[in-house]
């Protein structure tokens, strides 16, 4: 079967000597204010004032994102020098992450053996792990099925001025993001509910995460009729994946819930081709849960966390669920189906219900849920909706620390009216298209009981149409960093 598992990633190490290494490229940073870092100063002295001259002449300006690759004129030291512009703003975790990712991608035009990254001195130690994570994330690409790699990753990346601890942490975070991205980038014939669950099972083999998979029989026995309804049109049967991590003794767990629609054709409310092309990304919420659980467990965080992934494929056949169907969800609440393309909230109805049975002290769900959220916030910002401002503030704080943009949308009671049904308790769309991100969240709110809950609509930022210097197009792994941070920092309730 089609498989892409042999995509290379760089090996990373810390290093204490900058010049001793027989490196292909030395990477150093330059801020806009123009004073040379100690590494650049050293190179400058080795080369008779070469670097200073280039800076004075305005050839290199240190603007954010400026990447200058130069061949060294000296016969000692590194053959090539990459100067990374660091701008004039705060050198926070996000700029460290971006710098790490950009430098790897800039060097990806040819195979390099050893790259020494002397950026530790430019960033505060609290950002060093983000630098390492960014460099690893920069290795991950969309072109997982091209015969010739589009981007060549260095065999080794050696970080100078970075502690072993930051390196390890950065590796875990970078790998976690890449796990999410790989799951999302795989085509829908490779990642479907059963294979998603298998891939997660093998990822967590020999780890502290306990994996439980509910197959079709178990879903029937558990009364997960909503998940089964969405998956009914597909020959690939649905699954529910439960990932348990116990790092917090007897405390109540945090719950992470993900929408895992492995392909969204829209069902009988069929999407036009253009809108269907990228719908392998509709399991990004579930993949984010897998990536975050991977990070949380590998970092050994002192928390109990349970991940829940509702996995189904939304397809068209004689068995598809239909408009006008009424589904009695696992919770007992009934839903009338007005649009089979609003399937994510239907899958989440049962998934959230399973999650709240574990009595989480707080719950976050992630879903590529609505095009309306993209209309509201664009393609780069995740929408937050909540029944508990305290937990929502925590998520916002975590996202701010990591530099992932999020924005809260309101949950006024007046929206409750819009999901009422004439036949059942609720219907799966609002009145018309206005406020579609919020009506979707209002629908979900019916299934969270009184658990403090934040819904994160990642329809915009989960999957990118175009590449940027720090990231390839395709899956982004958005919110993995922020979720790990939230779990680590949360001492809620
Ligand atoms: N998976 C889509 C939402 C989506 C759209 C994600 C574009 C990523 C990019 C979701 O299942 C969907 O189709 N939502 C509908 C809801 C509508 C029928 C109420 C939408 O947003 O149009
Ligand atoms: Mn849909
Ligand atoms: Zn969908």
CATH class of the largest domain: Alpha Beta
**Spans with pLDDT under 50 lasting ≥5 residues?**
none
Kindly report how far apart the N and C termini lie: 47 Å
Structural class: alpha/beta
Global mean pLDDT:
96
Q: Kindly state the percentage of residues in helix.
A: 25-40%
Kindly state the number of beta strands: 19
Rg, Å, rounded: 24 Å
Q: Please describe the biggest sheet, giving its number of strands, its sense, and whether it closes into a barrel.
A: 8 strands, mixed
CATH topology name of the largest domain, in short, is Aminopeptidase
CATH superfamily of the largest domain: Zn peptidases
Strand order of the largest sheet: 7-8-10-9-13-17-14-15
**What is the number of domains?**
2
Ligand list: ligand BES, manganese (II) ion, zinc ion
The CATH level-2 architecture of the largest domain is identified as: 3-Layer(aba) Sandwich
Question: Counting H and I runs of at least 4 residues, what is the number of helices?
Answer: 15
Strand content: 15-25%
The outline comes out as elongated
What can you see in these coordinates?
The protein is built from 15 helices and 19 strands. It is α/β, with parallel strands linked by helices. The chain has helices spanning 38-46, 50-56, 93-106, 128-139, 164-185, 193-203, 216-221, 225-231, 273-276, 284-298, 344-356, 371-377, 389-402, 436-445, 480-489; strands spanning 11-15, 25-30, 67-71, 80-85, 114-118, 156-160, 209-214, 239-246, 254-264, 304-314, 326-328, 334-336, 362-367, 382-386, 406-408, 426-427, 453-457, 463-464, 474-475. The radius of gyration is 24 Å and the shape is elongated. It has 2 domains: 11-162, Leucine Aminopeptidase, subunit E, domain 1 (3-Layer(aba) Sandwich), CATH 3.40.220; 183-489, Zn peptidases (Aminopeptidase, 3-Layer(aba) Sandwich). The chain has an 8-stranded mixed β-sheet, with helices on both faces. The structure holds ligand BES, manganese (II) ion and zinc ion (ZN). Ligand BES binds at residues 264, 282, 339, 341-344, 368-372, 429, 436, 459.
């Amino acid at each position: 079967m089609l498989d892409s598992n042999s995509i290379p990633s760089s090996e990373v190490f810390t290093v204490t000597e900058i010049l001793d290494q027989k490196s292909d490229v030395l990477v150093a940073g330059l801020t806009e204010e123009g004073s040379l870092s100690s590494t650049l100063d050293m190179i400058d002295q080795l080369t008779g004032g070469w670097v200073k001259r280039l800076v004075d002449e305005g050839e290199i300006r240190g603007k954010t994102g400026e990447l200058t690759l130069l061949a060294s004129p000296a016969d000692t030291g590194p053959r090539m020098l990459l100067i990374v512009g660091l701008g004039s703003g705060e050198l926070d975790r996000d700029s460290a992450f971006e710098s790490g990712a950009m430098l790897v991608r800039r060097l990806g035009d040819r195979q390099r053996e050893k790259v020494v990254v002397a950026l530790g001195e430019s960033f505060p130690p609290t950002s060093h792990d983000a630098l390492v994570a960014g460099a690893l994330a920069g290795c991950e690409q969309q072109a997982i099925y091209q015969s010739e790699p589009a981007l060549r990753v260095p065999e080794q990346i050696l970080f100078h001025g970075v502690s072993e601890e930051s390196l390890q942490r950065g590796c875990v975070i970078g790998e976690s993001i890449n796990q999410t991205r790989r799951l999302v980038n795989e085509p829908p014939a490779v990642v479907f509910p059963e294979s998603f669950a298998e891939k997660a099972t093998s990822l967590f083999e020999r780890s502290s995460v306990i994996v439980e998979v509910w197959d079709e029989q178990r879903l029937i026995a558990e009364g997960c009729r909503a998940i089964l309804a969405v998956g009914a049109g597909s020959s690939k049967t649905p699954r529910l994946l439960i990932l348990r991590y116990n790092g917090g003794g007897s405390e109540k767990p945090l719950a992470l819930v993900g929408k895992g629609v492995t392909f969204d054709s829209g069902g009988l409310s069929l999407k036009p081709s253009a809108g269907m092309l990228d719908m392998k990304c509709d399991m990004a919420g579930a993949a984010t849960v897998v990536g975050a659980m991977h990070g949380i467990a590998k970092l050994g965080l002192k928390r109990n966390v349970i991940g829940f992934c509702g996995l189904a494929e939304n397809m068209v056949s004689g068995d598809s669920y239909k408009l006008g169907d009424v589904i009695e969800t696992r919770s007992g609440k009934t839903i009338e189906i007005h649009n089979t393309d609003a399937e994510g909230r239907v899958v989440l109805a049962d998934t959230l219900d399973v999650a709240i049975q574990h009595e989480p002290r707080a719950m976050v769900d992630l879903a590529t849920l609505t095009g309306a959220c993209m209309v509201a916030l664009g393609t780069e910002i995740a929408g937050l909706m909540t029944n508990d401002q305290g937990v929502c503030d925590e998520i916002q704080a975590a996202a701010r620390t990591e530099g992932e943009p999020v924005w809260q949308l309101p949950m006024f009671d007046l929206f409750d009216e819009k999901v009422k049904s004439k036949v059942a308790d609720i219907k799966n769309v609002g009145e018309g298209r206005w406020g579609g991100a919020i009506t979707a969240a209002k629908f979900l709110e019916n299934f969270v009981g009184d658990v403090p809950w934040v819904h994160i609509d990642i329809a915009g930022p989960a999957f990118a149409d175009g590449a940027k210097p720090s990231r390839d197009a395709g899956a982004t792994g958005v919110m993995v960093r922020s979720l790990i941070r939230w779990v680590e920092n949360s001492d809620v309730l």
